[in-house]
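Worked example

This section walks through a single chain of length 93. The input is the sequence exactly as stored; nothing has been trimmed or padded.
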Amino acid sequence: QNKFVLCDFLGLDTDCIWAMTIDTTDQIGEHDIQANINREALRKLALVTDSGKIRELCRYYTDRYIISPNAEVEIFRTLQQAWAWVRSDPECA
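Given that input, the structure is written out below as tokens.
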């Protein structure tokens, strides 16, 4: 049971960022919805990026594909900020 998920999108090269699209995000989201996971257990989803485009795609993804009823979602610019937020929840620490 995953209580948290931390996704690190830092350090992506510009070609990778350029290649990320809404269609790619939809494919990932559809795959995630079909995944056999315990959605009740997820409490925190931390997304980390310093790219404006990836930030927009993360928002698009979370608006459409996060179906975990108890999950909080935040987007951070640094891993340190994301880990501090995750660890602030005793269930995830």
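What to look for: The two ends are 14 Å apart (CA to CA).
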